[in-house]
Amino acid sequence: MPNATNSRPRALLRASGGPRYAVALAVDALGTGLLRPFLLLYGVTVLGLSAPVTGTTMTAGIVVGLVCMPAVGAWLDRGARSTVVAASMLVRVLGVALLLATPTGNVWMFAAAALFLGIGNQAWPAAHAALVSTIAHGRERDAALAGGRALRNAGLGAGGLLATACLAGGTTALRVLAVVTGLAYLTAAAFAWSVHVHAHPATATKTASGTDPGTAEAGDAEPAPRMGALLAANVIYVFCLNVPEIALPLVLVTQMHASPVWSAAIFVANTVLVVTLQVPVTVLLSRFSRRSVLALAGVVLTASYLGFLAAAALGYGWRAPAIAAVSVVCTLGEIIYAGSATALVTAMAPARVLGRALSRFQLSTGFGLAVSPAVITGLASRGQFALWGSLAAATLLSASAVRRTGPGGHRLSSRRHRAVRR
After folding, report:
1. Are residues 165 and 26 in the same domain?
2. Which of 60, 147, 174, 368 is the most exposed place for a label (fewest CB within 10 A)?
3. What distance lies between CA 236 and its chain's CA centroid?
4. Full domain range(s) for residue 190
5. Residues 243, 246, 252, 253, Cα dihedral to 10°
6. Do 176 and 67 fall within a single domain?
């Protein structure tokens, strides 16, 4: 049986890095929420760039930012923890500074700013997961990772709401938002660095979760895990994160001509559900193996995609409410995915290569997030069946691949699949 998971707020706070680190996470998320949704508007309205140029530049910054991940993984494997988290925040301070210094019409400085923001955004998840894995172990670590995600979503939502309220100020307000974002990143970096968490891989104990039925967690003597199937599946799984932000607004507003209020309501509901349910759902499912839970997430997401397809076939007055209802199922799948995916990677990887494993996982996540907007819009242009049918088929195939690979990343035969679980 898995070890008990303590989800009491005080214990969860300690396992997540302590009060100062929680403040760092909250302030960093608040700053990101202030600027991230309006970076495109900043490029268009403040810098006078065209929307296609701005969007392409932002996407390029995200993709090129992924190049830093091998170096981040190697840095983490040398024992750095809070230093890497703080560095990921300071890099974004530099990005905001470049953004504020960019003259009107200068696409290259905007590209440099987008690159540094992209590097910080890509490096942070792996560094955060490594820090939490150094402090907490087993299922307590899973709950701590879930708590960090809930806190981050709350900060992102609050930042987004504050930024929306400030948009009436026009270009001046956008510049002020950028300044506040830079200060938030700088403050968060100071708090994160002050935690002084450092690992010693050469003498580290095994990162023993040993809590999944039938397995023990990877030890230092084991080779780096082969995660090809998991990483490939993760590229598809991560599409679910862009469904509330891109797919549903695209379908509801441009194809069904529904009121934008529906899209806003779905986005708010998604944020509230993640904040309130991420930890309880993760704790509830801790009695099952992480790999099984991750496969379950794929099944739930597949069901939601098929639900969206069915909702699109309803009459005009029923489609938007039906899609809103199905979005709750999609959010549940997202919560199950987020609570098990990173946890599975940290359980699979020996302590000495944890950083590299997390950086590889973040590469797959970042790639999926980068390509999903183009894939979603391309499929949506071909109709509802092309969009939701393709996502359902790809996600179900990914869930099957996750379920049928063993702890070391090897494909299991049907007999071994019944005997080996993680």
Report:
1. yes
2. 60
3. 13
4. 16-194
5. 170
6. yes
